Q: What sequence folds into this?
């Protein structure tokens, strides 16, 4: 996709979104970026040692897995990555070569450093470097940290994360801070957010502000509404909605994200938001008070049947569905429409230029005069 002219990319995404939303609603176009490059504030590379002939040791490759394989394809100066993040990765590879730090080999159980993950504040420019090892120990980490800070003294924090499982997940459960406080801050929609290693934060900050603006426009909040923000992450949508709603309740399964969300509320002196650490579906089953508006921003897999059934039972006046996967969004829209809702309008925002992905926002409202019966609620 990145090899196509940007206007053509947007037209392809428009056609894709309208195909997925056909029969429900449509979009007039996809809101793109003026400069669709170097936008990713989260950069991840996997490491391996390249094979060399004659028994010699190959170079360290930092990049991505080749499709349907575990062969690492080296990537330098990616057009989508934050440029400073790529500079740091290049320095880390050089430090590894000169300091004899070996990439982790999952098959042989040798080496150490498995992934590099870098998070950058779009506005703050604060920088977090996460070194993921395949072993519990990180020999030479003090020398490694010292040399990296010597080359990049403006790094805010360095974290050692341990992932010794055979998994496609990048980060493991355990980690320790090697330098700094273990988190960074950034400004989004005029609000300050604390971001820790495992917390979800949209990768394209400029487009996120447009996306959230559209979500708030669709919600049409007047300052009196009770709002639920499902899959709330570190509370970005919750915090933005708090400016326009009466009360906001955020629910998120990731405990690290909920901790950050509570910190974020205090950072911004927001008092009309509460956050709960729970599965979104389980949480919705427990409550009986009807919210006015529910924001949904689920993972790519979409919402669960448990969540959607509970949402239909609670019957909020409006549902604002934000999605990074129009295909699972279509599946969930079908469920909600059978449950007594209609899709009013939709918007598409290009959060991921150069890729085939696109973000969508759909507004649903209750169908007038339709009573929600138990037969409708059940699948």
A:
């Amino acid at each position: 996709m990145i090899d196509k002219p940007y206007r053509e990319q947007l037209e392809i995404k428009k056609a894709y979104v309208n195909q997925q939303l056909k029969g429900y609603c449509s979009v007039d176009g996809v809101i793109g970026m003026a400069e669709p490059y170097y936008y990713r504030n989260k950069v991840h590379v996997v490491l391996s040692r390249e094979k060399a002939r004659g028994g010699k040791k190959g170079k360290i490759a930092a990049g991505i897995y080749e499709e349907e394989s575990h062969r690492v394809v080296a990537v330098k100066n990616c057009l989508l990555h934050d440029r400073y993040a790529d500079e740091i990765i290049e320095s880390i590879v050089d430090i590894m070569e000169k300091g004899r730090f070996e990439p982790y080999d999952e098959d042989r159980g040798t080496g150490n450093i498995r992934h590099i993950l870098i998070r950058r504040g779009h506005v703050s420019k604060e920088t977090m470097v996460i070194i993921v090892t395949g072993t519990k120990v990180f020999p030479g980490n003090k020398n490694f940290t010292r040399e990296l800070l010597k080359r990049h003294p403006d790094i805010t924090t360095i974290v050692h994360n341990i992932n010794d499982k055979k998994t496609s997940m990048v980060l493991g459960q355990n980690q320790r801070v090697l330098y700094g406080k273990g988190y960074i801050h950034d400004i989004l929609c005029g609000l300050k957010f604390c971001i820790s290693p495992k917390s979800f934060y949209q990768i394209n900050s400029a487009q996120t502000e447009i996306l959230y603006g559209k979500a708030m426009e669709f919600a049409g909040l007047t300052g009196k509404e009770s709002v639920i923000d499902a899959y709330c992450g570190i509370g970005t949508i919750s915090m933005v909605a708090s400016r326009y709603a009466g009360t906001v309740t955020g629910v998120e399964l990731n405990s690290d994200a909920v901790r950050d969300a509570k910190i974020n509320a205090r950072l911004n002196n927001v008092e009309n938001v509460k956050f709960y650490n729970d599965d979104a579906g389980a949480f919705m089953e427990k409550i009986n008070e009807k919210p006015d508006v529910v924001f949904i921003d689920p993972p790519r897999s979409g919402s669960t049947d448990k969540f959607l059934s509970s949402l239909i039972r609670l019957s909020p006046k409006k549902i604002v569905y934000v999605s990074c996967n129009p295909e699972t969004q279509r599946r969930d829209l079908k469920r909600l429409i059978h449950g007594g809702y209609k899709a009013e309008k939709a918007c598409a925002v290009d959060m991921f230029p150069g890729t085939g992905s696109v973000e969508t926002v759909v507004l649903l409202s209750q169908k007038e005069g339709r009573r929600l019966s138990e037969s409708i609620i059940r699948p």
